[in-house]
Amino acid sequence: MEVAVGDGETAAAAQVLCSLWWSSGPSWPWRVSGESVVRVRAHVDARRAPDGSSLA
Cα separation of 24 and 10, whole Å? Predict the structure, then answer.
């Protein structure tokens, strides 16, 4: 998943999203030249709960 938001503090909220699924955790925030947003990326498995158990 990739989250694009207006500032670094809001980007830190991606940790909350990552806690909903089995995930790599959020990356460090970064900016793309010419864009006004901050991006954070995480690899998530939406089929698994944070403890690794199956949601299906």
Answer: 19
Question: Which contiguous run of DSSP H or E holds residue 14?
Answer: helix 14-18
Looking at the domain assignment, is residue 39 inside a domain? yes
Q: Is residue 53 part of a domain?
A: no
Backbone angles phi, psi at 14, to 5 degrees: -60, -25
d(CA 16, CA 11): 10
pTM of this prediction?
Answer: 0.69
User: Domain count of the chain?
Assistant: 1
pLDDT tens digits, one per residue of 15-48: 888 888 888 888 999 999 999 999 999 998 878 8
